[in-house]
Structures are given as structure tokens and as C-alpha cells.
């Protein structure tokens, strides 16, 4: 994937949906992406920049951008906001110490103009760990019920085992489908 | 008219005559020696040049002979040396985009997803300047070569900025494009800037005044490549609408639309004489076009996947293509024959270029390596290993003895021989 391919991925097309995957460092974004594309997940390094994967899901071509989550590079997330059809926000459910921080980052994302009305899927990752908070607890803790300006959904999952990942993707694809149908009706 | 002195141009080889007119003003005249090779019969060439050029008198022949030998020596330089890793520059906190040298090669610049462009000292590897001000990815960058005292940066923030290459001061921000700027160039005199955008237009800007001189309207999809010709009179733009357009720089009018590709254009270039241009396409072919007639001269086939980059050598006698099929191919420009297939990369090749001497090809690949190839045989001479992620860009300096590679791994590497 050279620079030219990156430019081609910038284009908005009706055939490809663009999905942005964000979250704190060590939330498991890259692992989720690799698991979804059935790649080896044994040695994953912190993402210094970004990874792009094309996934097929029920006839849908999904163009998924996984962006590094370290604090120093979070200010650059907005580089990637344009043309986003759906946001996946990944939370390390076992990292209670940083639950507040991840909530704040999510809150800021939901206030971004370029992401307004973009459906958001929250993956409550690492459910395979004993210490993981349940999706309900996270919903409560982060006041997710106050999100009213867009479709949202929280999905418990484990990138390690793959549990819950497909359920989340189903939800995303349904929402993207709804949106593109609405756009089609507007045109008509 | 009186000849005052000779100047040499190494790549492509040529002799520049500085002469005095009757009114005592001085002018330059270029004699291109594009066909010069180490096998050239120098005495025959000297006689021919003196015969054709009234400015050069018989008694200048010995001097002219010495100059031509010097040009030949330059064509043969660095031939046998290997490149070694000179420095790793932890350049940026996010992936690099493009990189470029100034003419003398003592400085180079890198663009990045971290929204900056950095200026580097090639000799020491020191970071000289950080050009900070864009609000999104710095994608396209260029020096105003041959002068090298200014830098332009084109960004996903829709603007182009002009900087002082010595101090890093921002001279001007050119606003007007509706979406990302992804290609740009100075004209050869450094007076005009051309920018190409995902908004389907290209724009010409006056460097001094900062005004938009012309908006080049006509493409129906993103413009991803543009080049001035050697004289700066015409510009070509390559677009995702499958066409290349030739424009008149003076009035911004489209002279020709070069149609025939069946997929997006990925890369374009003029040859040195600017009578031909080439276009690489996602349709797996490269086309050679006659610029004045707008006719396709050759369609170069053979790649099994998208062509991602194309490049002429300095004289324009050969061209090279880079493909997603992991190979590069060297073609003879005149007859369109494939002269070498460069096989060895384990991933797509996204950038390719000749060294200034035209003896080697440099390729950059998603397999994290850069490679150097012998043009005549197609043999891989060297694998530049070390990057930990794919290489997005690469360049030779003007002497051909230094290479830089810019990678998605956030580093830039300097290789010397």
C-alpha cells in the first residue's frame, strides 16, 4: 500500500465504507483488526502511525483505518476524520485506572464536527480477562446513555478469542447500510 | 556576439555557452549532448559541435574536448561503489510521505502525517528546521531547484505554503483548493508554483504575489500528478479520470487531452526535451505520448498488476515503470522495447527512479526494502535493508552518490557510497 493507494482510499465511493478505529494505546485496536482479517496476533507492536485493512463483510467492502493511540499522537487523530462512515472506539475493559481518560477522549471525539452523526460502535475489549468490566458497567461509568445525536452500540468482545467481534461488525454494517439508503433516497 | 565562457551541465550532459551580445549584455545558450556515452568518439563530436555552433571558434577545440571528457567522466562516476547505511533519522512522530533533495544535495526535506516538513543536512544528518503550520498531513514537498532557497509544501489541509529554506520563515499560504493538495511543483525558473488537488483542479500561482494565476479546469476526477516541461511553458496533469491533460502555462488553457488509458493515472513525466511524456496507469500499462500532437506513440505492456510510478532517465532515452506486481521494467523510449525486468521485491513497488547518470535504478517497496539495479542487465546490485515498515518514497541526489528513503516506520534513512 504505497502513497498512491492511500490517495485512492481517501476518495469517497459508494462501494467502500470508511471506518475509523480509535481508542487509547494498548486498547487492542490493531489486534481486533488483525483478528477480523484472520491474521496472526501473537506479536503486535504499538502502532506508531496507522494500519489500513480492507475487510469484506456480507458483500460490503470495509476500508478500516486503525490509528495509533499513544498520547503524543492522539492530537493527530483528526487527520483521518474526513469521509468517515462509522467510528469504532476500543476500550480496554480491564484498565480501570484509565477508564476516565478513555471516556474523556471518546467525549471529545463525539464533539468533533467532522464526526457528527457518525455511528459509533464501542468495543469493550479484553472480556477474556477476569478483571474486565462488563459492557453494562462501562455504559454506566461513561454515561454512554447521554449520547443522543447518533446511533451507538456497546459490544463486549475479546480480540484474543474473537468473541463478540463479528456481532459488532454486523451492527456497524447495518448502520452504514441505513445511512447509504437514506442518502440514496435523498438523491431520488 | 562573443563567447565569454563555457559552463557544464552534468545531468543530462550539456554545455552552456555564456556569450556577450553587441550591446554588452550577456546571454546563455544550451547545447544538449543527450546521446553522449563513454563510447562516444569525442573528436568527431567536437568537430560536429564546432561546425554547428558559430559561437565556438576552431581554437576552442582543445578546451571543448576537455569539457566533453569531463562530462563522460561524470557519466561513469560511482559505478562500482556500494551504498552503505549512513544515518537513521528518527524523523517524525508519524509516517513520512515524500522526500526530496535540493540541487546541490547538501539538504533534503521530508513531509509527514505529523503535519510538518523537516529540513535535513545530508552531510551530518542533523535536523536543520521544522516547518510547522499546516493543519493536516504534509503530503507533497519541493525545493525551487536549482536555486534551493525556497520550499513549498502541499497539505491535506487544502493549502500550499512557501517557506524560506534557510530560516524556516513562512512567506505565504496559497489558498483556493477545495480539498487535499497532493502534488505540486515549481516551474524551472522558480517564479510559478503548480498545485494539483483531490478537488479535480490544478492551480498556477505567482510565487511573489501569492495570487492564483489560473485554475486548470477540465479533469472530472482527482489530480494526483503534475509536471512542468523543461522550459516551463507547458504542464501535464495526471488524473483518476483516466486521462492526462497538457496545459499552456501562459493562459491556463488545455492544449490536449491524452485519452486511452482504461484506469486511473498514477504518475506522469516529461522527457528532458519535452517532446514526449509518459503516463503510468492502474490499467497495468504505461503510455508514451507525443506532446505536440497529443498522440499515443507506444503502449508499454507486460506488468500483471497496477503501475504505480513511472520515470524517465535524465536524457529521456529510457524509462522505468514500477508495479504492484512487485517488478519494475526498463523500456527504450524510442522503440518501446522492454530492455530489463527487475525481479526480486516481495511486495508492490511504489516508487522508482534512475540515478542521474542513468546507470542504475532505485526502487522502493512495501517489502520494507529499497533496491538498486543495474540498468543494462537488470541485475539487483544491492538491497537496502533496515526499515521496519514499508517505504513510501526514495530519491537520489544530483551526484548520484547519496540515496534517501522515507518510510511508514516514521524514519528516514541516508545511504551513501
By helix and strand content of chain B, what is the structural category?
A: mainly beta
Of all protein chain pairs, which has the greatest interface, and how many residues does each chain bring to it?
A-B, 18 and 35 residues
DSSP strand count of chain B: 35
User: Mean pLDDT score of chain A, rounded?
Assistant: 91
Shape of chain A: globular
CATH class of chain A: Alpha Beta
Q: Tell me roughly what share of residues is in helical segments of chain B.
A: under 10%
Spell out the CATH superfamily of chain A.
P-loop containing nucleotide triphosphate hydrolases
How many helix segments of chain A? 5
Termini gap of chain B: 44 Å
Number of helices of chain B: 2
Uncertain segments of chain B are: none
Strand order of the largest sheet of chain B: 4-35-34-33
Helix/strand/pairing class of chain A, anyone?
A: alpha/beta
What share of residues are in beta strands of chain A? 15-25%
Describe the structure.
Chain A: Keywords: Golgi apparatus, GTP-binding, Lipoprotein, Magnesium, Metal-binding, Myristate, Nucleotide-binding, Protein transport, Transport. Chain A is built from 5 helices and 6 strands; from the N terminus they run αβαβββαβαβα. By secondary structure, chain A is an alpha/beta fold. Chain A has a 6-stranded mixed sheet, sandwiched between helices. The longest helix of chain A has 23 residues. The mean pLDDT of chain A is 91. Chain B has a domain of 75 residues. The radius of gyration of chain B is 21 Å and the shape is globular. Chains A and B meet through α1 of A and loops of B.
Quickly describe the structure.
The complex is a heterodimer of chains A (188) and B (417). By secondary structure, chain A is an alpha/beta fold.
Key attributes of the depicted protein:
heterodimer, A: 188 residues, alpha/beta, Rossmann fold, 6-stranded mixed beta sheet, 31% helix, 22% strand, B: 417 residues, mainly beta, 4-stranded antiparallel beta sheet, 48% strand, globular
Amino acid at each position: 500500500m504505497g502513497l498512491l493507494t492511500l490517495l485512492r482510499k481517501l476518495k469517497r465511493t459508494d462501494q467502500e465504507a470508511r471506518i475509523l478505529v480509535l481508542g487509547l494505546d494498548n486498547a487492542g485496536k490493531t489486534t481486533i483488526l488483525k483478528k477480523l482479517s484472520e491474521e496472526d496476533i501473537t506479536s503486535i507492536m504499538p502502532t506508531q502511525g496507522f494500519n489500513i485493512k480492507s475487510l469484506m463483510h456480507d458483500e460490503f467492502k470495509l476500508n478500516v483505518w486503525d490509528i495509533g493511540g499513544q498520547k503524543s499522537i492522539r492530537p493527530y487523530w483528526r487527520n483521518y476524520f474526513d469521509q468517515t462512515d462509522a467510528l469504532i472506539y476500543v476500550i480496554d475493559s480491564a484498565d480501570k485506572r484509565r477508564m476516565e481518560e478513555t471516556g474523556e477522549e471518546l467525549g471529545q471525539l463525539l464533539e468533533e464536527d467532522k464526526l457528527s452523526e457518525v455511528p459509533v460502535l464501542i468495543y469493550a475489549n479484553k472480556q477474556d480477562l477476569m478483571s474486565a468490566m462488563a459492557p453494562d458497567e462501562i455504559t454506566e461509568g461513561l454515561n454512554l446513555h447521554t449520547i443522543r445525536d447518533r446511533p451507538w452500540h456497546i459490544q463486549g468482545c475479546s480480540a484474543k478469542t474473537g468473541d463478540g467481534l463479528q456481532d459488532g461488525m454486523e451492527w456497524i454494517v447495518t448502520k452504514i447500510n441505513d445511512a447509504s439508503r437514506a442518502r440514496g433516497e435523498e438523491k431520488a | 556576439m562573443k563567447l565569454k565562457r563555457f559552463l557544464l551541465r552534468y545531468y543530462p550532459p550539456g554545455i552552456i555557452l555564456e556569450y556577450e551580445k553587441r550591446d554588452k549584455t550577456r546571454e546563455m545558450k544550451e547545447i544538449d549532448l543527450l546521446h553522449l556515452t563513454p563510447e562516444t568518439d569525442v573528436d568527431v563530436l567536437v568537430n560536429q559541435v564546432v561546425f554547428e555552433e558559430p559561437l565556438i571558434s576552431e581554437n576552442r577545440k582543445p578546451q571543448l574536448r576537455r569539457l566533453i571528457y569531463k562530462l563522460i567522466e561524470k557519466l561513469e562516476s560511482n559505478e562500482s561503489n556500494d551504498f552503505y547505511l549512513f544515518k537513521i533519522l528518527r524523523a517524525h512522530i508519524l509516517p513520512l510521505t515524500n522526500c526530496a533533495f535540493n540541487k546541490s544535495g547538501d539538504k533534503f526535506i521530508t513531509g509527514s502525517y505529523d503535519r510538518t516538513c523537516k529540513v535535513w543536512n545530508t552531510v551530518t544528518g542533523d535536523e536543520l528546521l521544522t516547518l510547522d503550520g499546516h493543519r493536516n498531513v504534509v503530503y507533497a514537498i519541493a525545493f525551487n531547484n536549482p536555486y534551493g532557497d525556497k520550499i513549498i509544501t502541499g497539505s491535506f489541509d487544502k493549502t500550499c505554503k512557501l517557506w524560506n529554506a534557510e530560516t524556516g520563515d513562512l512567506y505565504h499560504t496559497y489558498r483556493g483548493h477545495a480539498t487535499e493538495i497532493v502534488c505540486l511543483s515549481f516551474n524551472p525558473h522558480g517564479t510559478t508554483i503548480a498545485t494539483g488537488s483531490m478537488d479535480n483542479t490544478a492551480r498556477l500561482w505567482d510565487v511573489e504575489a501569492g495570487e492564483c494565476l489560473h485554475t486548470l479546469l477540465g479533469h472530472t476526477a482527482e489530480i494526483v500528478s503534475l509536471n512542468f516541461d523543461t522550459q516551463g511553458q507547458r504542464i501535464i496533469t495526471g488524473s483518476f479520470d483516466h486521462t492526462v491533460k497538457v496545459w499552456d502555462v501562459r493562459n491556463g488553457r488545455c492544449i490536449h487531452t491524452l485519452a486511452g488509458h482504461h484506469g486511473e493515472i498514477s504518475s506522469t513525466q516529461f522527457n528532458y526535451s519535452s517532446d514526449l511524456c509518459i503516463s503510468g496507469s492502474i490499467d497495468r500499462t504505461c503510455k508514451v505520448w507525443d506532446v505536440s500532437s497529443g498522440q499515443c506513440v507506444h503502449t508499454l505492456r507486460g506488468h500483471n498488476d497496477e503501475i504505480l510510478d513511472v520515470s524517465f532517465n535524465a536524457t529521456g532515452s529510457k524509462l522505468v515503470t514500477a508495479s504492484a506486481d512487485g517488478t519494475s521494467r526498463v523500456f527504450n523510449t524510442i522503440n518501446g522495447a522492454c530492455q530489463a525486468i527487475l525481479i526480486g521485491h516481495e511486495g508492490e513497488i511504489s516508487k522508482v527512479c534512475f540515478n542521474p547518470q542513468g546507470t542504475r535504478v532505485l526502487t522502493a517497496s512495501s517489502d520494507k526494502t529499497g533496491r538498486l539495479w543495474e540498468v543494462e542487465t537488470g541485475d539487483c546490485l544491492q538491497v537496502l535493508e533496515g526499515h521496519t515498515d514499508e517505504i513510501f518514497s526514495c530519491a537520489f541526489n544530483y551526484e548520484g552518490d547519496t540515496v534517501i528513503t522515507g518510510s511508514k516506520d516514521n524514519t528516514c534513512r541516508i545511504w551513501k557510497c
